[in-house]
Amino acid sequence: MENDIISAIEKQLSEGKGFEINFEGEIPNISDIKGLSKISKNEISDIKGIKKIRKKKVLEDHRDFIIDASKVLIKNKIPFKVTVFPNEIILRFDLDHYIHLYPDKFVVIGFNNLEEFPISLMKSYFPKNKEIKILRPIR
To answer: What is the pTM of this model?
Structure first.
C-alpha cells in the first residue's frame, strides 16, 4: 500500500502537480490540492492578460527530498500538502508550519529549530550542499 502512494507521489511530481496526503484511519490517501476558483476554465480564455501556465519542472534534489520526506511522514501518519511552483516547492504541514524549497536554499518556516517534530524526522534528508534557513515564529 505504501509503495502505491509513493509511486503516485512520483507521478504527481513528474507531471509538475501538487498533492495532498490525508489519512482515513490507518490508510493514507493522496488527492489533488483543492483550491477555489471564481471563474470556469472556459471563461479564462476570454480574459486578457491571462496566460496558460506551462508544465512546472521539479528540480531533481527537490524531487528526491519530497519523496524521502513523504516516506517518513506517511510512516508516522502525518498529513501534509505539496504545492509545486516553477523551480520551487512548498511542503506544508499547516498554515504556519512549512518548508519552502528554493533552487539555492531550503527555508524552514514556523519552527524554532531542526529538532522540532516533524522536521526532526526528515532533517537527515536535507541536501548538504544547500543553505538551510530557519524562520522562527514571532511570539
So the answer is: 0.82
pLDDT at 49: 62
Q: Where are the domains of the chain?
A: 2-33+52-135
Strand order in the sheet with 88-94: 27-31, 19-24, 80-85, 88-94, 97-101, 105-109, 131-135
Question: Pairing state of beta strands 131-135 and 105-109?
Answer: parallel
Q: What DSSP string describes 65-96?
A: HHHHHHHHHHHTT--EEEEEETTEEEEEEETT
Mean pLDDT calculated for residue range 75-86 = 93
Burial of 113 (0-12, 13-18, 19+ CB in 10 A): exposed
Q: 47-51, 70-74, 132-136: which has the minimum mean pLDDT?
A: 47-51
Q: Residue 7 and residue 20: Cα distance in Å, rounded?
A: 14
The DSSP bridge partners found for residue 98 are 92, 109
